[in-house]
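Researcher: Please generate the 3D structure of the following complex. Treat every line as part of one assembly.
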Amino acid sequence: MHSEAMPQAQHVIFGLDPLWLAVSILLMVYGVIMMEKFNRAVLALLGAGLMILCGVITQQQAIAGVDFNTIGLLTGMMIIVAISQKTGMFQYVAIRAAKSVKGEPWGVLLMLSVVTAVFSAFLDNVTTVLLIAPVTLLITDALGVRPYPYLFAQILASNIGGTATLIGDPPNIMIGSAAHLSFTDFLLNLAPIIPVIFIVTMAIVWWIFGRDLSASEEKRQMLMKFNEKEAITDVPLLKKSLLVLGLVIAGFSVAHNLGLEPATIAMFGAALLLLLQTWGSSTDEKEHAYEKIMGEIEWTTIFFFVGLFIVVTGVEHTGAIGWLAEQTLALTGGDFNATLAAVLWISAIASALVDNIPFVATMIPMIEGMEDTFGGADAIVPLWWALALGACLGGNGSLIGASANLIVAGFAQRAGHPIAFLTFMRHAFLLMLISIAIAHVYLYVRYL
Amino acid sequence: MRAKDIMKTAVITAYEQEVLVDLIARVRETHVRMFPVINQERVVVGAVSTFSIMEHLLPAYILSGDLGDLAFAPDMDLLLSSYMEGRNLAVTSLMDAPPLLVNAEESILAVAAALMRYGKHECAIVIDQQQHLLGVISAEDILNSLSNAVEKNSAQ
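Model: Done. Output below.
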């Protein structure tokens, strides 16, 4: 994704203008992705193929454009989560949290939201809600309360929590890799504002839903009968998973100082956990376990990223993104405050309405293109935080704002409590705008 | 051999005005696993089975297996709660749609194939042209007919 190192492609098909051709391919891919009629990985790979076949970029340039740090970090964490989730630790924590407030309905909502936010900060949001949403439905069934407020709060919590760390949300992984920002950088710069946003959001959720939640003593007693210890299905694997998760998070914290990329840490952790998981098993059992875990990696997401990186590289190569950066700067008069505000708010609104991954993939080279105007890589770091806050928190704006939102909506639908697009957006969009306003104040006070 | 030759005509049915609690009582009383649902004119309007009752009692997020073996949940309390909530639910809202209906003149092979394709429970409902209930055929009935044929062959 760094155009300055790239040689020009030799021949663009039919002598077409490479800029218009590349932009057309990008818009076509994004447009069809938004229609949700075809698999997004297939579309991104088709777009990537077209960039090469049409002569916009060469194969070498396409490969150079793939950010293997993002790919490695995603894949490594997927393997670690795929193994860890088999231990039942996520169900254990969710039930323990719900019981800690004696089944009081608002307390349960709050605790499950805290659990979701914390897990989302250290695992990907989709995995977190995949594990927590079904337990939530079981708990709300036991309490005899409608699940919508719980699932609504969980969606918000997953996107807010995911904003806090480098590994919490794919946009952060992409930003961290492109801008060489470490796990600690994210913790020191984004995590401090997340509790504030979370508390304000939950206060409003209480105002909207929490005041009316109630459950009979009998129903609360039923919740107290849940035995969280029974959720743990494999104690030795749980110990190994916690050990590796701890090592990986510690590794992320020191990786930057050791000159290591987070992908190296994640992939090493994944390999170590694969080894520990099958320690003492027969060769056949080991092979079977490896194949099973490899099958659980979300390859669609991985290939989507690969295709997307190549498509954006093609557009970047033609100078279109540089031109867009110049236009943005012209619009903000080259003023840093105005540019930061534009990046934050545009990212938030766009991420509420379209997939934030392709949006961030396009924004990254655009922000990189502003380095010279604002005095170098260090000077534009607040813009990266604005992009991360906007893209991650913006996902709360609508039901299609983030993949995790759709996962929760799917569970709600199957449980017979469908979440309507507009019903969700009526409250969620406003809450998203409030969170962005808080983020704006934070960025202004801390960096401007 | 035709469906009418081996079907059972003494059929235990459910009525469309009945509710879940009636049905569960009948399962316990008769040990039957599938009931044709008929209206007052004995026209078949559907079928309910122990499977369809279980489908109603178990929420989709449990059926999907997303929660694993659920050893941590108070299972009978949850089932009881689900039963108490749905006990007055009309039988018609629990019916398998569409039910497996076969014609009295259909061959046994066709009925067996239909049973295998349907897969939900092991009974087909035999009806006439106006969809009146004539009888039921189970996989067991077909296998019993086969056994009879084997015995007959051996005797010859």
